[in-house]
Amino acid sequence: MTAQETSRAAAPLDLGPAAPLQAARATRTIRRLPVQRDWPFWLIVAIQIGILLGGIALWEVAADYGWIDGFFWSKPSAVYVTLIKFFTEGEAWTDIGFTFRSTLFGFLLGTASGSLLGLSFWWSRNYAAIVQPYMICFHSLPKLALAPLVILVFGIGLASKVAIATALTIIVSALTAYAGVKALDPDQERLFYSLGASRTQVFCKLVVPFCLPWIISVLRVNIGLALTGAIVGEFIAAQHGLGRAILYAGSTYDIALVWVVALVLSTLAVAMYGAVSWLERMLRRGMKQ
Amino acid sequence: MAAKLRLDQVSMAFKTPSGSFQALAPITLTVSSGRFVSLIGPSGCGKSTIFNIIAGLLQPSRGRVLIDGTDATGTIGRVGYMLQKDLLLPWRTVLDNVVLGMEIQGMPLRVARDRALPLLRRYGLSGFEYLHPSALSGGMRQRAALLRTLLFDTDVILLDEPFGALDAQTKLQMQEWLLGLWADFGKTVVFVTHDIEEAIYLSDEVHVMATRPGRIIDSFEVTIPQPRQRSATLAPEFIAIKERCMHLLSMAHKAALGEAA
């Protein structure tokens, strides 16, 4: 075998099929590894601001020259005037406060009770098996479709908005916490039991700390869902809130006001998202993971 | 010497879709106080099943587990049990991991920490006390896990392949370290391993197991006096024991193959 190989190596010309291969080798294109250079941070920011300002300017010009219908689309200068009026004459702070409170309460209530529900499945596999299908059902149900019912039951005040926000967040939290419970290493539990631990001890010292990263990971999702719930609740029936303000503005053809409230609403969303992200970082640092 | 741990006709059968599977034939095993006893055998010979039964995590189909002469079948927290994985809690510092057993037994955390700190320093974890396990090497993590088992303060300690996942060099160091600990604490140790040389080097007594059903096919004493030097592994007596073990294990292996064919 070895001798044969050696003789072949000594007589490369015998290898007929190798000739096309060598031709291909001669014409092979030599390429360099594509390298992407990172632009400096200030340049990225400058371009972002440029796009924003350019968009606003284009919108203004388009409305002035009649390229778009100024009545339906309004224009930035009108939006600016309405913004000042909204904060000086309107009920801006009442509305912001109302929406903020419904969102926050719904978020807290939904996240806390959902997480507890998910963790509770650790205690009994039978109980978990019984409750599972109901949870999946409720999860796949478009909960906003029930909003009119919720308004009827809880009234048009804060309670109904909190209820909708809670309904949107509770299942996500429960399913995520339960995913944490299921990811628990059975050997880890066996270790605790071999040390003579009680069920309560395993729950408090192992299950809860183990599932905390799971629970924390849904905080940012939940704040967005809670805000959605609060706004939809206000759309249907409310006396205050940014959702009601948008609905009111739309039904009175005050398009500039729609833009203003949408702007305020996104600012609120970004602020709450930022606060929750900060909370998440603090919690993770606290756990040192 | 008094029997510290005794398995009395312990057997285990698992129900499977195709009937009943005999994981352990009735096994009787007596371990005297302060002895270091090893179980060696192929995978699936029921070593871990025996450990789970002794630790009370599994109810045997038949038979009893006696600790100090009293029936301890199906009771947990009577023996220290260390698995191959270190199972350190990533959110706790090394110190707080090591005190876990004492904490579960209701000892105030401060007292438990005060007791653990000098031991951590003495047994090679000095400077790691307040770090989290992720910062430790595999060998260091196993040390912490073993100290956690020791500090649980039971007379009997079960070690299920504690060094199985370590590299050869670290494994040798850990064996020396374990022998030192054993000499200091005077615990009764039951040790499971795949490694024949490790079993003989560490133990007073070796039990060789076979599969289908899991059973002990031979038991013998290692008469080389403790404490042992590493060079003892080269002594004719050591090699004779090793050959005997290898012979038994290959016989068991052939028998298992014959049965399967």
Give structural notes:
The complex is a heterodimer of chains A (289) and B (261). The two termini of chain A are 58 Å apart. Chain A has 14 helices and no strands. With 289 residues, chain A is mainly α. Chain A has a domain at 86-287: MetI-like fold (Orthogonal Bundle). In chain A, helix 6 (92-120) packs across helix 12 (219-236), helix 10 packs antiparallel against helix 11 and helix 12 (219-236) crosses helix 13. Helix content of chain A is 79%, strand content 0%. With 261 residues, chain B is an alpha/beta fold. Chain B folds into two domains: 3-77 and 156-162 and 188-260, P-loop containing nucleotide triphosphate hydrolases (Rossmann fold, 3-Layer(aba) Sandwich), CATH 3.40.50.300; 80-153, no CATH class. Chain B contains eight helices and ten strands. Chain B has a six-stranded mixed β-sheet, sandwiched between helices. Chain B has a four-stranded antiparallel β-sheet with strand order 2-1-4-5, covered by helices on one side. In chain B, helix 6 (168-185) links the parallel strand 7 (156-160) and strand 8 (188-193). In chain B, helix 7 packs across helix 8 (236-260). Chain B is globular and about 55 Å long. Chain B starts with a strand and ends with a helix. The mean pLDDT of chain B is 83. At the A-B interface, helix 10 and helix 11 of A face helix 3 of B.
Task: Please specify the SSE layout and strand pairing.
The complex is a heterodimer of chains A (289) and B (261).
Chain A: H1 2-10, H2 18-26, H3 41-64, H4 70-73, H5 76-88, H6 92-120, H7 125-140, H8 147-154, H9 158-183, H10 186-194, H11 199-217, H12 219-236, H13 242-251, H14 255-287
Chain B: E1 3-16, E2 19-32, E3 36-40, H1 47-54, E4 62-67, E5 70-71, E6 80-82, H2 94-98, H3 100-104, H4 109-122, H5 138-151, E7 156-160, H6 168-185, E8 188-193, H7 196-202, E9 205-210, E10 215-221, H8 236-260
Parallel strand pairs in B: 3-8, 3-9, 6-7, 7-8
Antiparallel strand pairs in B: 1-2, 1-4, 4-5, 9-10
